[in-house]
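Regression test attached.
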Amino acid sequence: MGKKSLISITDFSTEEIVRILEIASRFETSPEPQLLNGKVVATLFFEPSTRTRLSFESAINRMGGRVIGFSDPNISSVSKGETLKDTIRIVSNYCDLIVMRHPLEGSSRYASEVATVPVINAGDGANQHPTQTLLDMYSIKKTQGRLDNINIFMVGDLKYGRTVHSLVQAMSPFNPTFHFISHPKLRMPQEYLDFLDAKKVKYFEHEQFTDIISEADIIYMTRVQRERFQDLMEYEKTKDLYILHNSMLDNTKPTMKILHPLPRVNEISQDVDPNPKAYYFQQALNGVFARQAVISYVLGLKQ
Amino acid sequence: MDKSELKVTAIENGTVIDHIPANALFKVVKILNLEKEHNQVTFGTNLDSKKLGKKAIIKISDRFFEDSEINKIALLAPNANLNIIKGYQVTEKRSVELPEVIKGICKCMNPKCITNAEPMFTKFTVVSKEPPALKCAYCGKITTQEHFEII
């Protein structure tokens, strides 16, 4: 069959990623409302994620495909104790492609081993969410005109943030310079710093969210979650330190864009939204094009 | 042959597995399925060893192992070696080697890994031999030696 699954961003080579971004760009300018005629895609969301699911379903519908699936495992056979393997094997009969989100890590990898159709990982626990990485990269490429030599600033929860980990890995072949701004308890984990050292990629770590951002091409904001702190007082002190306000943007580059994987809570102040540098809503739209590209590539309809 | 081996009876034909850490003996027996072995099996444990402090030896008569079988014990007995015996003589010596992929022997230490929730085999790639560390092929987390739990 030769149709690949996409479980981790590392499943695709750098060349494949570049090609997928090009395919996404073509979908943006020339929609293909018939491409998935006659195809059925199953969206299996074992844990809820309205935004990701809607994004995928929009991508499928806009290519003329049909969607089946569930978004609440409580009403499915899972609650009857069926194994994941059985569920996947059975659903494989009903569709041409599976898009899956599951709370346990490695679940999508396992599903791709037992399914008879390709599987796209829409998030497995705290592990991977490769289509998010692709849409982040698409947003970078689109707004900066390139992927190479970008100054990327990542702010907030760098320890548990799956999207920042993945983006660091995926962008590393393009000679970026990273600036990591976080509370010391939420630093980028050592394994990723070691990874960057091994790839000879430059990075800097900062504790203060200051004027250093004037050097940024991209500011990638993430939410600092309360659950990550044992000490609530420390959380309360910390959460306001990494909030982006419009006033902070005065000396930033005109081409700089602010990204956020969403949902945005308070880490980007509402007063930033009207600023043309706020890109997070267009970023979500790019998710549709990126997912269209991945779906059509994985089904062998686009090379 | 070191003197401690003489405490365990010599065999005419078969395999001697030497330099097993004493505390790993019974897990090694389990991994090699020796409980179901029909041929004569002799063990010695808590024997003195310069290399390991306390070691164990297993002698299995009339039984020979493929590399793929024996390398499964490499996680627990990385310095183990085999003496192949024929006619009471050592005809071949082999060392145990950690394979690149380990299936179904060790648990993943990530409680949120799918392998701990589904009836399925674990699968790891070896990312470090000394000290041994295993990367789960499913969740990507690394299980280090202190956390090795043999299934």
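Expected vs. actual: identical. The helical segments of chain B are 25-31, 67-70.
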